[in-house]
Write a structure and sequence with these properties.
The chain is an alpha+beta fold. It has one domain. It is built from seven helices and six strands. Strands 3-4-2-5-1-6 form a six-stranded antiparallel sheet, with helices on both faces. Strand 3 and strand 4 form a beta hairpin. Helix 5 packs across helix 6. It is globular. The chain starts with a strand and ends with a strand.
Length: 160
């Protein structure tokens, strides 16, 4: 049975370290990242959908560099949040539910609505959301890595 493990980082460097450690633990294809693009927001950039972030060069920002470590990176403009970058499996989910925002994508992954809204607000405030799917026997391993690198609000939810 699969579950989704999710947590919020407030430090780009720690998020990158956690991401690398998760990849070393074999979670690479199941890791997702969502974060606001602060540099694009500050520069007053407009719609940014569809930019290629695979080289980690998006707006020259640190978050873009972190996202570039994952496959399936994309940029979206989410109403009420602004420009974000998303990487991993959640990127495709968010592309299909832009009007539902980040919360809609997280609900699709299996989070309850109120927790999806909570995590969306954390991203709105500048947090970096890392999540991954894990089988029951690997859930604690994934959660432990997130906690080790300083993630807050680490939660486990049944995949929907």
């Amino acid at each position: 049975m699969s579950k989704v493990v999710v947590g919020i980082f407030h430090d780009h460097g720690r998020a990158e370290e956690a991401l690398e450690d998760l990849k070393n633990h074999g979670f690479e294809k199941d890791i997702s990242l969502v974060a606001r693009d602060e540099e694009e927001q500050e520069s007053g950039g407009g719609a940014i959908g569809g930019q290629d972030l695979s080289e980690g060069t998006f707006a020259g920002g640190t978050v873009g560099g972190i996202a570039g470590l994952l496959a399936g990176v994309g940029a979206l403009l989410i109403p009420g949040i602004g420009p974000i970058i998303a990487a991993g499996p959640i990127a495709a989910t968010l592309t299909g539910v832009v009007t539902g925002g980040i919360a809609g994508g997280l609900i699709d992954l299996g989070l309850p609505e109120e927790r999806g809204e909570f995590f969306e607000e954390q991203v709105r405030q500048g947090g970096i959301l890392l999540s991954m799917k894990a089988e029951d026997e690997r859930v604690e391993e994934a959660a432990s890595v997130l906690r080790q690198y300083g993630a807050s609000d680490v939660e486990v939810h049944q995949v929907g």
